[in-house]
Write a structure and sequence with these properties.
single chain, alpha+beta, Dna Ligase, domain 1, 5-stranded antiparallel sheet, 3-stranded antiparallel sheet, 10 strands, globular
Length: 127
């Protein structure tokens, strides 16, 4: 299946699965989506991430009857790329969320990119 924007597809699948109260969600595997899913796990937004042959399985995390992810937004899109410097990385929801960037050092969470003094393409925000 050919996708124009696999990151937006991943975020949409996770959002829809949480609204439907699913236990887990699958999406096509790529290095980028695998890195983003790993960052979501490290920051406590999802319970677990498993890489299968061609898919990534994300086990969703719920706080009472509400998903751990309140919202997400794709920022840099295929038609409009958004780049930021290390000092321009935005604070998401006053520090309650995370920004995910694609940098020369790999896909990093915003605070880690600031600590390493590296900027890059602003992929998405999750809160």
């Amino acid at each position: 299946m050919l996708l124009n924007d696999p990151i937006a597809d991943m975020l949409t699948r996770v959002r829809n699965a949480q609204k439907a109260l699913h236990k887990d969600v699958f999406f096509p595997a790529s290095r980028m989506t695998e890195s983003i899913a790993g960052i979501l796990k490290e920051n406590g937004f999802v319970a677990d991430v498993h890489k299968e042959e061609r898919n990534i399985r994300v086990v969703l995390k719920y706080l009472s009857s509400k998903g751990a992810i309140s919202g997400s937004r794709r920022l840099s899109k295929p038609g409009l790329r958004i780049y930021v410097g290390a000092k321009e990385i935005p604070a998401v929801q006053n520090g309650l969320g995370i920004a995910i960037l694609s940098t020369p050092k790999g896909v990093l969470e915003g605070r880690v990119a600031m600590a390493e003094n590296v900027g890059g393409e602003l992929l998405c925000e999750v809160w």
